[in-house]
Design a protein that fits this description.
Layout (H helix, E strand, L loop, with lengths): L15 H15 L1 E6 L4 H6 L2 E3 L1 H10 L4 E5 L2 H10 L4 E3 L8 H4 L3 H13 L4 E6 L4 H4 L4 E3 L4 H6 L6 E5 L2 H11 L4 E2 L12 H10 L4 E4 L5 H4 L4 E2 L2 H9 L6 E5 L5 H7 L4 E4 L24 H10 L10 H13 L1
Parallel strand pairs: 1-2, 1-3, 3-4, 5-6, 5-7, 7-8, 9-10, 9-11, 11-12
Helix pairs in contact: 1-14, 3-4
The site of iron/sulfur cluster (SF4) has 13 residues, from α5.
C-alpha cells in the first residue's frame, strides 16, 4: 500500500446531519457516487449510493458512469474499483484502511512459493480471494469472493491442483463444499478468526431458539455450530427470506447488523462476541479496525480535496484481465 503521512490530529466532532448535507452537495458538484461496504458504519451506508459485499461493489464500480467513485471500504476494494473502471477518479477516505487478510499474503512471498511449486513439477492454478492486493491478483489465475467462490472452483479442470490464497478458513470451507482438495495459504482475517466458541455456545444457551449465521472466513470451530454459512450478501438475502421473527446470532463484522436490520427489521440480531479479555470483559474484536477508519468527515474531506486517490500502477493491467474474467464475465 502506498505510504502516506499520518495525520495524528484528533478529528473535531461535527454534526453528522451537517456532514451528510455537505456530502450530498459535494457529490452533485463533483459528479460522484459513494460505494460503501457492509462493514463500514451504518451512517456511511445510509448516505451511500450503493452498498454491498466485495462482489456487488466491484460490479457497481465497473458499471458507474459518474466521474468519481468514493470507496468507503478498504484499500484492496478501491484498487479493484480503479482496475475495473480506469477512467474514473477513485478516492479512498483513508489510505491507511488496509486488511489483515490481504497483508497475510505479500506478492513476493506468493511469487516465491509459486516458483517452488513449479520447480517441484506441480501443475496448478492459483485462485485468490478478492481480499488481496492488486499485486497479488496480478499473479493469480482466478479471483473469487465468498459469493462466487464455489461456482468458480467447481468449474476448474480436475487435472489441475488449486493453490488457494490467502484465507485458510474460507479455503477449508470450500474444500468441504466442493470436494476439491487445495493447497491452502496460511492467512486469516483478524476479525473472523477471533470469534470464541465458548461465547457462541453461551449466547446460544442464553437465547433459546436462536439461529447462528456465520461468514465462511470464520474458523471451522465456529462454522460447525452455525445453521447458515454465507458471505454478507447471502446473509442479507437469507434473513430477508424468513418472515417469522427470529433471533440471529451473527458471526461476522459487527457493522453487518445495520444492513441486516434494514433488510429484515422483524428479526433480532445479536453480534457474536469475541474473546474475553483478562479483565473479564468481551473485547470489541468483531469490529474491523480498518473499516472503522472510514468516517463521515473523511468521506466529506476526500470529496472536497479529491484525495487520497488510487492511481494506476503498472501491475494493474494483468490484475484487470483476471478480475474482469472472474467477476464480470
Ligand atoms: S474484516 Fe477482515 S477481511 Fe474484512 S477488511 Fe477487515 S481485516 Fe480484512
Amino acid at each position: 500500500m502506498p505510504l502516506t503521512v499520518l495525520d495524528t490530529r484528533p478529528e473535531v466532532h461535527e454534526d453528522p446531519l451537517d456532514l451528510m448535507d455537505e456530502i450530498d452537495e459535494l457529490k452533485r458538484e463533483k459528479d460522484a457516487v459513494i460505494l460503501a461496504h457492509y462493514y463500514v458504519d451504518g451512517e456511511i451506508q445510509d448516505i451511500a449510493d450503493f452498498t454491498g459485499d466485495s462482489l456487488k461493489l466491484a460490479r457497481d464500480a465497473a458499471a458507474t458512469t459518474s466521474a468519481t467513485i468514493v470507496f468507503a471500504g478498504v484499500h484492496f476494494m478501491a484498487e479493484s474499483a480503479k482496475i475495473l473502471n480506469p477512467a474514473k477518479t477513485v478516492l479512498l477516505p483513508d489510505l491507511e484502511a488496509g486488511c489483515s487478510l490481504a497483508e497475510s499474503c505479500p506478492p513476493d512471498k506468493l511469487a516465491a512459493f509459486q516458483e517452488e511449486l513449479r520447480t517441484a513439477g506441480r501443475d496448478f492454478v492459483t485462485v485468490a480471494y478478492i481480499n488481496t492486493s492488486a499485486a497479488v491478483k496480478s499473479l493469480c489465475d482466478w479471483i473469487v469472493t465468498s459469493g462466487n467462490a464455489r461456482e468458480i472452483i467447481e468449474r476448474l479442470p480436475q487435472d489441475k491442483e488449486i493453490l488457494f490464497v490467502p484465507d485458510q478458513h474460507l479455503g477449508r470451507y470450500l474444500e468441504e463444499v466442493t470436494g476439491r482438495k487445495m493447497i491452502l495459504w496460511p492467512g486469516a482475517c483478524m476479525v473472523h478468526e477471533i470469534f470464541s466458541v465458548q461465547d457462541l455456545l453461551r449466547a446460544k444457551r442464553n437465547n433459546p431458539g436462536s439461529v447462528v449465521i456465520a461468514h465462511p472466513e470464520c474458523p471451522r470451530s465456529i462454522l460447525e455450530h452455525s445453521e447458515f454459512i454465507g458471505g454478507t450478501e447471502k446473509m442479507r438475502k437469507y434473513v430477508a427470506s424468513l418472515g417469522e421473527p427470529t433471533t440471529f446470532l451473527v458471526a461476522t463484522e459487527a457493522a453487518m447488523i445495520h444492513p441486516l436490520k434494514k433488510a429484515a427489521p422483524q428479526h433480532e440480531y445479536i453480534p457474536v462476541p469475541g474473546i474475553m479479555t483478562s479483565s473479564g470483559e468481551t473485547c470489541a474484536c468483531n469490529r474491523c479496525p480498518h473499516m472503522a477508519r472510514n468516517t463521515l468527515q473523511k468521506v466529506r474531506d476526500c470529496l472536497k480535496h479529491g484525495r487520497p486517490e488510487i492511481r494506476w500502477q503498472p501491475f494493474f493491467d494483468k490484475a484487470r484481465d483476471v478480475l474482469r474474467r472472474s467477476l464480470l464475465e
